[in-house]
Amino acid sequence: MSLELGERLVIAKHRATVRYVGPVEGQEGTWAGVEWDDPSRGKHDGTTSGKRYFSCSCDSPTAASFVRISKISRGSSLVDALVLRYTNQLAEGQAAAAADGQVFLHTSGHRKVWVELVGEQKVTERLSKTELLQAARLVGANASHVGPAGALAAAAPNLVQLDLTDNLLSSWDSVRQICSELPRLRVLQLSNNRLALPSSIRSGSPGAVQVLPGLQCLVLNHCSITWQQVGVLQRCLPNLLELHVASNNITSLRVQLEQQQPQYAADGQQPATGQPQQQLGSSCADGSLVGFRNLQVLGLEDNAISSWAEVLRLAGLPSCGGCTSAATPSAA
């Protein structure tokens, strides 16, 4: 099994992130150094026997452990989880067993009573066709990646809402693939996924800014993201109406200035030569956001914002008049 740093795993029903893969002094074989989602579960902080193998994102002295590769589960693909959840395989098996279309119930007097299941075949057929789904809920399905290119588009091309709360997704590339294969997707719930979002966009990097024009609502609660990463996301989400980033321990609403990137059209194409190039999202000199031009709802509940001066940075959001940010500073 070949593991990658940052990969999300399940180990005996507990979730963790890969921080190290390799030998451990005094032990045989290859080990995975992991940071537990529950920082009280581990035995150290990445240092053992006086040697540091890796660092954790939190400062808990018990956030890390070394685990044998054989004890690790890498989860499943989103496509497999979707098919398993919505194909109603049990009902299909029952229908095959009762091929004559007759079902009997046994009464308390041990008599068999014939029952006609009105519409049973139609219900089973509808549930077995994921391509008809417009909304899907795959909470806690342990999906760690999307699946082969094109598989999601083939399985559920009509999805408008997708709830992937509490899964094992670890990369923003997975989000790009989901949105690319589901052009009708408008609402994406990704809470409690430890996504590795970019903190900046390198100038001149081909394809660095990939616009996701369809998304209108994105939920990133409890994802351990920073406000700097939110500032990068504004360049990718020009039509976003709702953004929820609650419970991320965000302390500041300042975005570090960087060289601005050219505006991309809503279809992801570059503007024609000679056309004016506005920014998808940028920052004022004081670090305030002025992107998310259509944003109406911003959820910042349960963060660690301690100053009203930070809240005032939100005044740069063009549609902030209808914004319900819930960004009240926490008490000192």
Radius of gyration: 24 Å
Strand content: 15-25%
Helix percentage range? 10-25%
> What gross morphology would you assign?
flat
CATH fold type of the domain at 8-71: SH3 type barrels
Which class of the domain at 8-71 in CATH terms?
Mainly Beta
Give the total of beta strands.
Answer: 16
CATH level-two architecture of the domain at 8-71: Roll
The largest sheet is:
6 strands, parallel
Q: List the strand order in the largest sheet.
A: 10-12-13-14-15-16
User: With helices defined by DSSP (H or I, 4 residues minimum), what is the helix count?
Assistant: 7
Summarize this structure as a short list of keywords or feature phrases:
332 residues; alpha/beta; SH3 type barrels; 6-stranded parallel beta sheet; 4-stranded antiparallel beta sheet; 7 helices
Q: How does this structure look, described?
A:
Helices cover 16% and strands 18% of the residues. It is flat. Strand 12 (161-163), helix 5 and strand 13 form a beta-alpha-beta unit. The strands form five sheets. It has a six-stranded parallel β-sheet, with no helix packed on it. It has a four-stranded antiparallel β-sheet with strand order 1-2-3-6, with no helix packed on it. The chain has a domain at 8-71: CAP Gly-rich-like domain (SH3 type barrels). The protein is α/β, with parallel strands linked by helices.
